[in-house]
Design brief:
236 residues; mainly alpha; two-stranded antiparallel sheet; 6% strand
Length: 236
C-alpha cells in the first residue's frame, strides 16, 4: 500500500519566503508519531515563523470568497486542514474511530435478529438532514429495517455527522489531495459509504496493540481516496 500518494498525503509546495509543512512517512512507533505530530504542530500553529512576503497575495482556496488573503494565512489554513483531514489525531479520523464500536453493536443486533439482511450487500450514507440512510440493492422494507436500527444508535449518528461536518469544513481549506474533488452538502450522500469505510479500515491486532486505535488511519485514508476517485468529480 502506497501511503504517500497525492490523494492521501498532499505535500505543500514551497512559495517565495514561505515555510513548508512536510509529513515524514512511515512512522513506526508511538514515539515517532508523537515526534512527528509535535513537529507538524510547530510548523503549522506557530504563525510567527512565517516571514511575510512583500506585496505577495494568494487567491483564497474557497472560490466563493470575494477577498484576497496573504499567502501565509492560506498556508496556515492548509496546514490545519492537513492535520484534521489526514492525521490520526485530526477531527475527521477521530470521527471514524468513534463510529466503529456503535456500528459493531448495530451489526451484532442485526445479525441476531435479521441475519439474512446483515449478510447482504448494502451501504450507509447520510442525508442533508443528518439522518443515516441505507444504499444498495435492497427493497424498501429491508432498507427501512436497517435504517431504523442505524438511526436508533445516537452515538453512531453523531459520529457520522461529525465526520461530515468536519470533512466539509476542512476540505474548503485544502487545495490538493482530497480537496481536488468536488464534495459539498448536496452531493455528500452520493460520495461516501460509511459501511465500506469502516469495514476496510479496521485495525489488525498488531496495529491495534502498537497504536491503540480501532481503525487504521492509513487504510482509512486509502479508502476515502478510493471513494472520492470512484464517486466524486474533480474540481474545475
Amino acid at each position: 500500500m502506497q501511503v504517500n500518494s497525492q490523494d492521501t498525503y498532499p505535500l505543500l509546495q514551497p512559495t517565495s519566503n514561505s515555510s513548508v509543512v512536510e509529513i515524514n512517512t512511515p512512522v513506526n512507533s508511538k514515539e515517532q508519531l508523537k515526534s512527528e505530530m509535535e513537529r507538524l504542530a510547530k510548523d503549522i500553529y506557530h504563525k510567527g515563523q512565517f516571514k511575510e512576503p512583500d506585496a505577495t497575495y494568494y487567491k483564497p482556496v474557497n472560490k466563493d470568497a470575494n477577498i484576497l488573503r496573504p499567502i501565509e494565512e492560506v498556508m496556515y489554513d492548509i496546514g490545519v486542514a492537513t492535520v484534521h483531514l489526514y492525521m490520526p489525531g485530526g477531527d475527521v479520523p477521530k470521527a471514524v474511530e468513534k463510529m466503529l464500536s456503535p456500528y459493531d453493536s448495530v451489526m451484532a443486533e442485526l445479525r441476531s435478529e435479521q441475519p439474512s439482511l446483515a449478510n447482504k450487500s448494502w451501504g450507509i450514507s447520510i442525508n442533508e438532514s443528518g439522518e443515516l440512510t441505507v444504499t444498495g440493492s435492497l427493497n424498501d422494507d429491508e432498507k427501512a429495517i436497517i435504517a431504523e436500527k442505524l438511526n436508533s444508535n445516537e452515538e453512531l449518528v453523531t459520529a457520522v455527522n461529525d465526520f461530515k461536518s468536519n470533512y466539509l469544513k476542512y476540505i474548503k481549506m485544502e487545495p490538493r489531495g482530497w480537496g481536488t474533488y468536488d464534495v459539498n452538502e448536496s452531493n455528500f450522500a452520493d460520495v461516501f459509504d460509511f459501511r465500506e469505510m469502516l469495514e476496510s479500515s479496521r485495525s489488525s491486532e498488531e496495529f491495534k496493540a502498537t497504536w491503540d486505535y480501532e481503525t487504521n488511519w492509513l487504510k482509512l485514508n486509502d479508502n476515502v481516496s478510493a471513494q472520492l476517485r470512484s464517486n466524486a468529480s474533480k474540481r474545475k
